[in-house]
Design a protein that fits this description.
- The protein folds into 2 domains: 218 residues, Rhopdopsin 7-helix transmembrane proteins (Up-down Bundle); 177 residues, Orthogonal Bundle (Hypothetical protein af1432), CATH 1.10.3210.
- The protein contains 16 helices and 2 strands.
- Strands 1-2 form a two-stranded antiparallel ribbon.
- A hairpin with a 5-residue loop joins strand 1 and strand 2.
């Protein structure tokens, strides 16, 4: 039978082209997965070269052993495509090693079949004119393909918890079409190209779907890693803040409380969860600059001298220096640097006024003021709640942003038993 080599190669080449485009356009694919797809393409290309060579050499006067070797290699390559599909399916399967052992048995049988033509004609043979003839066990490669396809389907449907319903449907469709292709090859002559073309198209289709599965897996792992990093980061930040608070036994837990109050104020004024998370971190670290202030000044029980107060006033700038190079959260230093600015412009270190002060710093200033009044300090006991409320009302619009101060006043009014100050995270 005469074959048009262009027709034979056209559809598989289109399939390989789609695969390449797919891989290049989906940069999120893991390196292992990308390599697996490259192997797919190589196998299809090898199958094409072997089959083309077989067609070209059939009926020629080439050495009998050359064309037999080419045919044998072709029989070996075809089941490998299905094995690669199975290797994708069982990526999350618990008994992968047992399955690989199971897959090895048909592969060994296939190898013996493929090269048996050198010793006997019961599988297939070439006559003296190099024409192909199928032997009495000539159906063996198709049975082996069928075995692999059955294994693929069984694994897919037994892997209930890790294989999605749509994925099962796709695999079932692939199996049916490949079985039809295998039988068509035997019924209508050496139409290996039919299976190659179908396999190339289906591999692209399966690959497209499989990429969505991998993308879900990757996104899930990224979420888990992000949560783990955030948890670790929060522990580190909390530890650092605890080190600062420990410089003064009277301010233990101060940073965490300020962070909690600032987050609640942010929620009340309608800020989203991302903003609330950021300001919580800012609140924890708002006093980090005190790490550079001598303990003798921080722990002093009496009134500070002008010189000592001047040193204390440097902690916002120190805090900025500590935090400003954290690139993952470039505005993390806002709270540390400007939480002592006043709404009327009489604060420090920059004398900013009103909305010149970043919103985050204005919120932390309110939270810091409340905790300073409601907690015990080295120079006085905690103020009564009524006094804290009156003082907050008095400084709204001068020291504190009036709208944010109003939110704190509401929080105080909703806490008649004065329990808000007692809660620590």
């Amino acid at each position: 039978m005469t074959y048009d080599l262009f027709t034979i190669n056209f559809f598989p080449v289109i399939g390989i082209t789609f695969m390449l485009l797919f891989i290049w356009r989906n940069s999120y694919l893991e390196k292992r997965v990308r390599n697996l797809y490259y192997v797919f393409m190589c196998l299809i290309a090898v199958e094409l070269v072997l089959y083309d060579s077989e067609l070209i050499l059939e009926g020629s006067d080439v050495n009998h052993y050359i064309i037999t070797t080419i045919t044998a290699l072709g029989y070996i390559v075809r089941p490998m495509m299905i094995c690669l599909l199975i290797s994708i399916i069982i990526r999350n399967y618990d008994n992968r090693r047992q399955i690989y052992k199971l897959l090895a048995v048909p592969m060994i049988i296939n190898v013996f079949y493929s090269f048996s033509a050198f010793f006997t004609d019961i599988s297939y043979s070439y006559d003296e004119y190099n024409h192909f003839h199928r032997g009495v066990i000539g159906w063996t490669p198709h049975l082996i393909m069928l075995v692999y396809l059955v294994i693929m389907v069984v694994i897919t449907f037994r892997n209930k918890n890790k294989t999605k319903r749509f994925e099962k449907t796709i695999i079932a469709e692939i199996t049916v079409i490949l079985i039809i292709g295998a039988f068509a090859e035997s019924l209508f002559g050496s139409y290996a190209v039919l299976r190659i073309a179908i396999t190339a198209a289906l591999l692209f289709y399966y690959m497209f779907f499989q990429s969505e599965v991998y993308k879900d897996d990757i996104l899930e792992r990224q979420i888990q890693q992000t949560e783990m990093v955030e948890h670790f980061g929060l522990q580190m930040i909390t530890t650092l803040a605890g080190t600062v608070d420990a410089k003064d036994s009277y301010t233990k837990g101060h940073s965490l409380r300020v962070a909690k109050y600032a987050k609640e104020i942010s929620r009340r004024i309608g800020k989203d969860e991302e903003f609330q998370k950021r300001i919580y971190y800012m609140g924890i670290l708002h006093d980090v600059g005190k790490i550079g202030i001598p303990d003798t000044i921080i722990q002093k029980k009496g009134k500070l001298t002008d010189e000592e107060y001047g040193i204390i006033k440097t902690h916002p700038v120190i805090g900025e220096e500590v935090l400003k190079n954290i690139t993952d959260m470039p505005d993390l230093y806002y709270g540390a640097k400007w939480h002592h600015e006043r709404y009327d412009g009489k604060g420090y270190p920059d004398g900013l006024k009103g909305e010149e002060i970043p919103l985050e710093a204005r919120i932390i200033a309110v939270a810091d003021a409340y905790d300073a009044m409601s907690s015990k300090r080295s120079y006085r006991d905690a103020l009564p709640q009524s006094k804290v409320r009156d003082e907050t009302v008095r400084v709204r619009g001068t020291q504190l942003d009036p709208l944010l101060a109003d939110e704190m006043i509401k929080m105080i009014d909703e806490d008649p038993d004065y329990k808000m100050r007692e809660t620590e995270e």
